[in-house]
Structure formats: C-alpha cells, structure tokens
C-alpha cells in the first residue's frame, strides 16, 4: 500500500496540471506514508539476543555482543556440519491475543564476521523458527547443559517436515518487519520461548543489531509493519524533485 500511494502521488505531479483535487489527494498520500510509524504500538520489548556458531560449540549473548547472527542450520564443510543460529526473546507482552504482531529488526549486513551490505546480487535471506519446547533463554551458557540444548534445538529444527514460520529476502541493509502474529499469540498463551533466526542451509549468515549497537536498534514487536528500506529511499529521494515540480506550477 505504501508503494501504491507513492506511485500515484508521483503520477499526479507528472501530469503537470493545476488540478486541485489531485493536489489534495497527493497531500493525503504523502501524509499517510509518513504517518505509518505514528500508528504503531510496541507490544513486545527485547529482553535477550544471542547466537551459536561452529557446530554449537560456543555461544554469545547480549552480555558480550551488541549484535547477533543468523547462521545456517546446516553448513557442511570437509564432512563436518558447522551449523549455527541466532535467537531473540521478548517481554512486556500484551495480556490477551492480538490481531497483528510484527517483529522489527535492523539488518547490518550479509556474512558473519566478514559482513558486507546486502544487495540485489547478494541478499540476506532470513528464516524465522518457533523453538518449540526449548526456551532460547537457556541456550547462552558455556556449560554442558546449554550445549546439549543448542544441539537438540538444531536437530529439532532440521527434522523432516519442520518449516520456518516466516521467510524474508532483504536486498539492502536497514529496518525490516515480519508478521509473527501466531507465534506472538502463543507467547501470550504462556509458551514464550522466543524466536530463532537462521539462514538457508549451506547459505550465508546475516548480521543484526542487538542492544546498544551504534548502527541499528534492538528488535521489538509492533502492531504494524515498517516500510522497507527501498521504500523509504524512493520516497526521500523523490521529495526534492516533487518540490521542484510544485514550484513550476
């Protein structure tokens, strides 16, 4: 809807006609586009981020990292599966089920430690999973129990028939949102075990902002989706041109 409003607005100006009704529509379109964020309500605040790597032998959480990674659940190299994945958990949830819930997060790049910006030719592909009975809060330790749980969750998520609850392909860095209403409502019902971030099997990892990251914001849950980065780029880059056309009228 955001893009449709923007395209119609541009068409109104391109016609170069002093049509008051179209100018009114244009104003409404632009105001509506910019007011999407003002309609949003935060219904979940991040309490934990983390990730495991190199076949689950180690893990980091927001206690020692200001980012987290979505690694492939299967990554075969020289006969060994160097799997990994990330996780996020939220608190301050609503007391009753909601009609809409979007997880909002900031993509920092493609790749793990050697990240580069996402692009059309090298996109970040993210799979979101329900961790089921395993609470992601228990995954971050360096003890044997945490390592066992990390391995068990990897096996659960790669079992036959298990599919991600959502998938998104991102062609630029920035803020994205994904509909997770069903998962959110399961949290409200009492099974708040968080959400898992993973990359495609044998694919590239992707990097996301955690707490106190200078390049992005920690994830949160919103009642409305956010405009994707390319939408905001088109809108902001077109504003000076629109103002020039307006002066010519």
Q: How many helix segments?
A: 5
Q: Describe the biggest sheet?
A: 11 strands, antiparallel
The whole-angstrom Rg is: 21 Å
Question: Level of helix content?
Answer: 25-40%
The low-confidence runs, each spanning 5 or more residues with pLDDT under 50, are: 1-18, 21-31, 231-249
Quaternary structure type: single chain
Could you spell the SSE succession in H and E letters? HHEEEEEEEEHEEHEEEH
Could you describe the 3D structure shown?
The chain has 249 residues and is an alpha+beta fold. Helices cover 28% and strands 27% of the residues. It is built from five helices and 13 strands. It has helices spanning 2-14, 20-34, 144-157, 181-188, 229-248, and strands at residues 42-53, 58-61, 67-70, 76-77, 80-81, 85-91, 102-110, 124-129, 166-170, 174-179, 195-198, 206-209, 220-222. The strands form two sheets. Strands 1, 2, 3, 6, 7, 8, 9, 10, 11, 12 and 13 form an eleven-stranded antiparallel β-sheet that branches. A hairpin with a 2-residue loop joins β4 and β5. α1 (2-14) packs antiparallel against α2 (20-34). The longest helix is centred in the last third of the chain and has 20 residues, at 229-248. It is globular, with a radius of gyration of 21 Å. The relative contact order is 0.23.
